[in-house]
Amino acid sequence: MKWLQTFVNTKLHQLTAEELRRYAAPFDLKLTNRESEILARLLKQNKIDFFNEKERSMLFKRTEEILGTARSRKLESIVQTFLHENKL
Fold this sequence. Notes:
By secondary structure, this protein is an all-alpha fold. The protein is built from five helices and no strands. Helix content is 74%, strand content 0%. It is globular, with a radius of gyration of 12 Å.
């Protein structure tokens, strides 16, 4: 499954602001243009390993500053669900 982790990390590090908004919409997570641009830049600049709990936790602390607590926790819940459902 290491190849899948590498693929997911690579894709997340290359997301554009538009892709972030598009992927967030089905989960009823609304992002403004500015928020999605900041998040996309954050993902590109900080090449974290999304499968490393410590690195992921640090990222969500940063997203809380951008999105606020409720939306950041919702985003974290979406990611946790994805990881759990795919046994990653």
